[in-house]
Amino acid sequence: DQQVKQNSPSLSVQEGRISILNCDYTNSMFDYFLWYKKYPAEGPTFLISISSIKDKNEDGRFTVFLNKSAKHLSLHIVPSQPGDSAVYFCAAYSGAGSYQLTFGKGTKLSVIP
Amino acid sequence: DAGVIQSPRHEVTEMGQEVTLRCKPISGHNSLFWYRQTMMRGLELLIYFNNNVPIDDSGMPEDRFSAKMPNASFSTLKIQPSEPRDSAVYFCASSLGVARVANYGYTFGSGTRLTVV
């Protein structure tokens, strides 16, 4: 049973346009959500996170939106750049002493110059 | 800071052989995680340690898999005997404290690509 789902395996976007990556979750106990970026032959690297008490967090070109009632979050990249081409993983975290991150399967973003 | 260091980067072995993957976490980090990435299952947690003690190994596929953390700067993941279905990329990650995981996640190594033929 997948608790974190990224239903789009891939996404192609023109350079300069907005990229929107989506993630759904099923576990109401998750209280933090994170996005990771992964280039080929490298490990995932942390990109941005959001607490469940917020609905938006912004860091430069990256903004994460959280809709708790829908159990849905999205990552917006504006404007998209060719260097953003990578696999993006959504991850969820439940506190209370658990250090575990539960990951989605990832979405491969291709930004076309 | 050299980051999380994993070795080897690539491993090709024959079915039935023992495989040992190694990880050096970031100095000062007190939690260490082993993940496996496959096309079918994505990134799945195998086991994690806190202060060198295994906390949750429920993700370890079967008895052929074992992990140890003899000290704060070294961990191993062993597969004995290896099977073709174990072929995957194995990641090690480390973190410092609960608050940091929530806001900054883990720091991952570059992974070991294991191929069992």
Task: Summarize, please.
The complex is a heterodimer of chains A (113) and B (117). Chain A is mostly beta strands and 113 residues long.
Question: Features of this protein?
Answer:
A: 113 residues; mainly beta; 5-stranded antiparallel β-sheet; 11 strands; B: 117 residues; 1 helix
Task: Describe this structure as you would to a colleague.
- The complex is a heterodimer of chains A (113) and B (117).
- With 113 residues, chain A is an all-beta fold.
- Chain A is 0% helix and 54% strand.
- In chain A, strands 2, 4, 5, 9, 10 and 11 form a 6-stranded mixed β-sheet that branches. In chain A, strands 1-3-8-7-6 form a 5-stranded antiparallel β-sheet, with no helix packed on it.
- Chain A is globular and about 45 Å long.
- Helices cover 6% and strands 53% of the residues of chain B.
- Chain B has one helix spanning 98-104, and strands at residues 5-7, 10-13, 19-24, 31-38, 42-50, 53-56, 65-71, 74-79, 88-95, 107-108, 112-116.
- Chain B starts with a strand and ends with a strand.
- Chain A binds chain B through residues 31-32, 34, 36, 41-46, 49, 51, 89, 91, 93, 95, 97, 99-106, and chain B through 4, 31, 33, 35, 41-45, 48, 50, 55-56, 91, 93, 95, 98, 101-111.
